[in-house]
Design goal:
By secondary structure, the protein is mainly alpha-helical. It is about 60% helix and about 5% strand. Helix 2 crosses helix 3 (about 90-100).
């Protein structure tokens, strides 16, 4: 039994208070400690070991650094120019992290990891209250152990904070609207979190909860009770009170420049693809299947099962209503429809509404659908628990087959990565990554493929057995954890060494040597993270913009130029006299005058060999 009651659609508010089922505090504590340890490894371990990725991580991290440096807590900037693309909350969090830990990759990513941990614990406590600690633990593990959430919680992006607050808003709505205790407090938290989500990533912060709540109330026909008990007008006023003051101050400070940019990055992004991020209409189908793997195979059946139960319940409820109208007077012995699985419907509506909303958007990126992942974890855990308790549950065996085949396909993709990289990708990367053709993927992808093949075999062996089905969960989770460890230990450090960090190290060296008023020019490979590592304003000169460089070179004072070796010949003639100061894996730092301070990490490496170097950790 749950400690909360769920009213059937259209019913009046429940006023009784059933006695809650209590669980040992030691059990809850053990589960929390397990989740803390797992998230510590997945979200925090080696968090600052990899250089910032471009473009969003570099822009966000530098905007937070500049906010701390300038003390301007209202107007975010990047490269000391106004940055209107995102609201201010994440920059506040990054600035606080820099103040606490110092300016570094770890500090830039710490808010994402912290809110990711908070999200996992929040989901566990929510479901433990509504259902039981075991189901809650399964859902929390599903939320922590998938590729999408691990990636988002290890990057300096706005999404982890957004997902935390949209989830808090919807959990609080459920507790405030569908439960019998502390209703008012939870509803205020719902609207408060909606406002904070809007400060994290703009209108999507209130649209995701609003779409979900609207869809759920429409499907369950509870609009009348919501207007009475949900405090929609007061709640929206609180949401506006939280979010609008910052937007109003930005409009007052920057006027039409801000409103035009904000409109382009909200309504404009929805109506028209931006920065080439359109992809296909069904783009989010593979994103969800792979991003939520290995749980996505069960998710498909969980969502369909919730939909079928909603249809059956509506049909039975409709039949009951007709029978009551034809019967004179109430009949206390008349059969009633079974209790509604309202939480399943709510999470199913959450998933469907978010998925459709971002599918309709013209600009599509994989992390956009992140807000539906907590709902996916809850719905899948509820379904999985039923598959274990009731082996004949609809789709129990078929879902195991889907999980297995998704795993086999992913294993095949990992095994093909070295061939695809050598034959299709390396040659196209040479201009921006000069050593791309001189390195290979090594054994990492094959190790990941092997782990998946073994793991999916175990998922099938256990999942197709009614008596051992419970073990297939751990086989699936262990497989995903193994793949993540291979990525962290073998593949990502090597990618960082050869492709990500070389220009960043040179930008840091330039920043150490240049005085205020002297300039750093980043040519051809114009990555925003260069400004973060240089700790100064950078002139970005793209391919074909050499005239922009000539104009800058007319200024007095020392100048440094960071560029890929392959673009040296394209430099204007008056730069030919610049001295090559440092070289790092195909990147050069040129200077009009000699350097004084040379960071150890940016010393000149030995010339690359003509044979391919294995791209593995520790090489």
């Amino acid at each position: 039994m749950s400690d909360l009651s769920e009213p059937t659609p259209g019913s009046s508010p429940i006023t009784h208070h059933p006695s809650p089922v209590t669980y040992p505090v030691s059990l809850i504590a053990r589960h929390v400690l397990l989740l803390l340890a797992l998230c510590g490894v997945l979200f925090f371990w080696n968090l600052g070991a990899l250089g910032l990725t471009d473009r969003d991580e570099g822009r966000n991290a530098e905007a937070g650094r500049e906010m701390l440096e300038t003390g301007d807590w209202i107007s975010p900037t990047f490269n000391y120019q106004p940055r209107y693309q995102k609201p201010v909350l994440v920059y506040w969090l990054m600035s606080a992290s820099y103040k606490l830990f110092g300016v570094s990759e770890f500090a830039a990513r710490f808010p994402s990891a912290l809110f990711g941990l908070g999200l996992v614990l929040m989901l566990y406590l929510f479901l433990a209250r509504l259902r039981d600690p075991i189901t809650a633990l399964l859902a929390a593990l599903m939320l922590a152990l998938n590729l999408q959430m691990i990636a988002l919680n290890r990057m300096a992006l706005t999404d982890s904070v957004l997902i935390f607050f949209t989830t808090l808003s919807l959990f609080a709505f459920w507790l405030g609207f569908q439960t019998t205790r502390e209703r008012r407090r939870w509803l205020w938290i719902c609207y408060l979190a909606m406002g904070l989500a809007t400060l994290a990533k703009g209108p999507v912060g209130f649209l995701v909860p609003l779409i979900t709540i609207t869809l759920y109330l429409s499907l369950t026909k509870q609009w009348g009770r919501f207007r009475q008990d949900g405090k929609p007008l007061a709640g929206l006023a609180l949401c506006a009170l939280i979010a609008l003051p910052w937007y109003a101050m930005m409009w007052q400070l920057h006027g039409s420049d801000y409103t035009a940019a904000a409109q382009a990055n909200t309504v404009g992004r929805f109506l028209k693809p931006m920065e080439g991020h359109s992809f296909g209409f069904l783009f989010y189908v593979p994103v969800l299947l792979l991003g939520f793997f290995p749980w996505s195979g069960w998710l498909l059946f969980a969502w369909y099962d919730a939909y079928k139960k909603w249809r059956e319940f509506r049909r039975e409820a409709g039949g009951q209503a007709v029978a009551e109208q034809a019967t004179p007077g109430p009949s206390p012995l008349a059969p009633r429809p079974p209790d509604a699985p309202s939480l399943e419907w709510f999470t199913a509506a959450w998933i469907a509404g978010t998925f459709v909303f971002f599918t309709l958007s013209s600009t599509r990126l994989p992390h956009y659908i992140g807000p539906l992942f907590p709902a996916a974890a809850v719905l899948t855990a509820l379904y999985w628990s039923r598959c274990v308790a009731e082996p004949a549950t609809r789709g129990a065996r078929a879902s195991v087959h889907v999980v297995m085949w998704l795993g086999f396909l992913l294993a095949g993709a990992f095994a093909c990565i070295p061939w695809i990289y050598d034959s299709k990708i390396a040659g196209k990367l040479v201009k921006e990554f000069p050593l791309a053709t001189q390195v290979s993927m090594g054994s990492g992808p094959y190790i990941a493929a092997t782990i998946l093949l073994i793991g999916m075999g175990l998922v099938g062996a256990f999942g197709l057995s009614e008596t051992r089905r419970r073990a297939s969960f751990w086989a699936a989770g262990g497989s995903l954890a193994g793949v993540v460890l291979v990525l962290m230990l073998f593949i990502l450090p090597a990618v960082n060494r050869y492709f990500v960090s070389p220009p960043q190290e040179l930008a840091y060296a330039a920043g150490l040597n240049l005085e205020p008023g002297e300039q750093l020019i980043v040519y051809a490979s114009t990555r925003p993270s260069m400004a973060f590592y240089a700790r100064r304003k950078v002139l970005f000169v793209g391919k074909g913009e050499e005239e922009k460089m000539r104009a800058a070179l007319s200024q007095s004072g020392r100048t440094m130029i960071l560029l890929p070796e392959t673009f040296v010949e394209k430099l204007p003639g008056d730069v030919k006299t610049y001295q090559p100061i440092l070289k790092r894996y195909g990147y050069l730092l040129l200077a009009s005058q000699p350097m004084v301070n040379i960071p150890e990490s940016a010393t000149l490496p030995p010339p690359p060999s003509t044979t391919k170097e294995p791209l593995i950790f520790g090489h």
